[in-house]
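pinned: reference chain
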Amino acid sequence: MTQDEKELKKRNNRRDAQLCRENKEYMTKIICCLRDEDVPDMQVEDIRQDITDMLLDAQERGEKAETVLGEDYRTFCGEILESLKDREAKDQDRKKFGILLMWFPFVGMFCSGAAAGMKILQHTPWSPAEFLYTLLYFAVWTFISAAVYVTAGKKFYMKKSYFEGRRKTIAVLLALFFAAAEAVFWLTGI
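pinned: its structure tokens
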């Protein structure tokens, strides 16, 4: 559990103490229902904070939880879970797009290596200008990826490390392979 989660949980516990017994019981049923559905703890605490706000406001007006949130807590939990699924689907789409953007430099490196490979297959001389031209692919795609990362990286979940374990090894090996291949092509002047 992160420090933010611990602080939010403590704050929620302090605020829950202000609820009357009936509202506390209703809140407990909702939280148990969400935890039974394997909602992540941080999301549960965020939802708990929002519901506590609603219940404290209702309590000041003299209303009970059943009046504000509905007689059946399961129906209310179902609505929460449905909204979380919609949000999760949108988050997954953004995450996939972010992963695609993170692979852009490797796409550029592949295009660069393919251009160098074409030179070998054509048995044409390799000049420093052509070497720089092939590196242009890599530079353009890296620039696009970096620009998106800086401007909207958090929105596309690019801040979270996608390159872990095997993926990291594959990415590093690809980068080394294409960089070494281009260096060899340039140095040998094929």
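why pinned: Residues 19 and 153 are 40 Å apart (CA to CA). Helices lie at 3-16, 21-36, 41-60, 65-69, 73-102, 104-121, 128-152, 166-188.
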